[in-house]
Amino acid sequence: MPKKPTGKERVDPASQRALRKFKAEIFQVLGHPTRIHIIECLRDGELSVKDIQLRLGIESSNASQHLALLRASKLVTNRKAGNQVFYAIRDPLLIEALDVMRRYFHAHLEDAMGLLRDLREDA
Amino acid sequence: MPKKPTGKERVDPASQRALRKFKAEIFQVLGHPTRIHIIECLRDGELSVKDIQLRLGIESSNASQHLALLRASKLVTNRKAGNQVFYAIRDPLLIEALDVMRRYFHAHLEDAMGLLRDLREDA
DNA sequence: GTCGTATCTGCGCATCTTCGCATATAGTTC
DNA sequence: GAACTATATGCGAAGATGCGCAGATACGAC
Q: pLDDT per position in chain A (123 positions), as tens?
């Protein structure tokens, strides 16, 4: 997609709308603490649903529902192995993007919650 | 503050939970097409509410509500100038983060193609 | 086949979101 | 002061979301 130095690019407005909707859906999927937690757990490799459920301390149905959302938005992949299903982050680019977001979060933590000034993150 | 001196976790779980909640709130604010649109419009500089409302073609109350959310989450700043209020992106780091996300979005545009097709069929 | 475990899905309920309309507040101009 | 524009806020309805529980499905062990 070449960029035109002219003022306005002529792109189909419907496509623009659809692209924004697509972006918003991705962000919305990321917009829940449990799903953030799941993705953070998957950062270092795949996990079974049971693993995730135990780590987060949630109902299995709840885990399933969140995983279904992550699956539907193509953020994760699922691999069936015998009795269980293993989930993993689909594209390492997502991790990279989240790392940049993490820089933003930490730069503005104090704005939103001054109580957590002593928060540290292990790299 | 309950801390685990095990060496495995260096941050207490309550803070971790709070941090995830904070991240989720930011993502959720980004998780709406209208707010995505507003931020994209503000990319190149500040705009008044009226400008935004006209560009997006939405009710002024609707614009105000979305801007209130962006304001509450500290993603934008608002500057009152006489009769009107100008909004701007607060931290260029957000733009940087969104650019990385954009790379992710474009890498997975195929996933969005289904959306595009559905939208075209509606129109 | 039966039993036990892992995962998913349907349902009901409570809560949150989003929109437009109406109204309120602030600033400018006369 | 009145009249006008620009933003913000309250309200209510329609829809979306999240949770736990119960039930369904799939797989392995026996």
A: 554 455 455 677 777 888 899 999 999 999 999 999 999 999 999 999 999 999 999 999 999 999 999 999 999 999 999 999 999 999 999 998 888 888 888 888 776 554 444 444 433
CB A120 within 8 A of CB A106: no
Which residues of chain B have a CB within 8 Å of the CB of A121? Answer: 11, 19
Cross-sheet strand order for the sheet of B76-81: B47-48, B84-89, B76-81
CA B23 to chain centre: 11
- Does residue B16 lie within 7 Å of nucleic acid chain D, judged by its CB? no
Distance, CA of B79 to chain centre: 19
- pTM of the predicted model as reported, rounded to 2 decimal places: 0.85
Tell me which residues from 82 to 101 on chain B have a beta carbon below 7 angstroms from nucleic acid strand D: 83-86
